[in-house]
């Protein structure tokens, strides 16, 4: 690669290298030249000269070209690239774990079509953040953009491998769906990678035996322009088509995947969204029961600061240890490794599994829900209600010009009425007594935007709404 003719290469890298991944607008800060430099730098950071790096990509128009540019940079520095082609993000985790090789996935997840990005893993699907190597990758890539990538004596090679069938078999080995009652399931892939993985894992596309599932596909065509709706199920507007289809088809439930299919959202038979905290509690119970039956007396389960209070209550009632942690992909992965946790759940619908190298896997979470739901006769709405006893606000974002001032107003207003902790942003837990209903809220400043993110939970809807409205008034004053 020749040195670039334009200036500002390092400034471009600063804008696209985020806390846990690379993310930017295609053709602006994110170009083939930048990606090639990042490929070379990543190979250096993980010591891949003479070894292997897995490279996969989603269905965005720019993804195949970026994957090739990354491979050029990595092979120039001596790494052999295992190109697995079109895949979900959790497929790259599978390849990284099963091959014990570092991996790079080209995706912008749920972001609009104009974006792309890279999710990095060390061997064994270990996460990489700014503090654990991403900053070094960024800085070295800047050097390569300034001065060119120095080739090594023995450049690497590119091998193309299809891991989809092995991935599907591995997930089937972790959750047995063969004995559940027949279920009709609408799946909205959002034109993302779920359109590839769902037929392989839940259907027969990978050559596996049929399951007692009737899959009704919605937007399974791989299309990185997202012609139907954004592949971001966290936004309720993007669940509307799935909710309507579940009711129209008389389905038992619906599943919605984001663009790179590493997150899964669940809709019940009435079309109502099932809270991700309820999913976390359901999966936690299953994983706790499984490992306790194998002799693990006090397994650990991770949950972040904005999951429902019912999640740690469920974990502890099942005889496990609940560990509360900050929000964030790499942070959760790190805590999974540190504690040996069997499972980790985030309210954003990321679910992490020890038996999947501590990485997150939305498909695996969906399979646990199908297994639990399909082993009992009640409708999903009734099962979900058991795991959603409290009232949650959902995350509410407010644009705030002076974030520290808003933060201070909140602290002053609730001093004497709540206990505070600052594990992640500010969490205030009400100093309630007697028959007073409990409440808590968390306010987290965004790392990249002038936003405050609010989550509130109350023992009942009225309590939650009162706290929510008071805190929002303080934020937006």
Describe the structure.
With 477 residues, the protein is of the alpha/beta class. It is built from 15 helices and 22 strands. It folds into four domains: 9-162, Alpha-D-Glucose-1,6-Bisphosphate, Chain A, domain 3 (3-Layer(aba) Sandwich); 165-270, 3-Layer(aba) Sandwich (Alpha-D-Glucose-1,6-Bisphosphate, Chain A, domain 3); 276-386, 3-Layer(aba) Sandwich (Alpha-D-Glucose-1,6-Bisphosphate, Chain A, domain 3); 391-475, 2-Layer Sandwich (TATA-Binding Protein). The strands form four sheets. Strands 1, 2, 3, 4, 5, 6 and 7 form a seven-stranded mixed sheet that branches. Strands 17, 18, 19, 20, 21 and 22 form a six-stranded antiparallel sheet that branches. A five-stranded mixed sheet has the order 9-8-10-11-12, sandwiched between helices. It is globular and about 75 Å long. The N and C termini lie far apart (52 Å). It comes from Agromyces flavus. It holds the Pfam family PGM_PMM_III. It is an enzyme of class 5 (isomerase). Keywords: Isomerase, Magnesium, Metal-binding, Phosphoprotein.
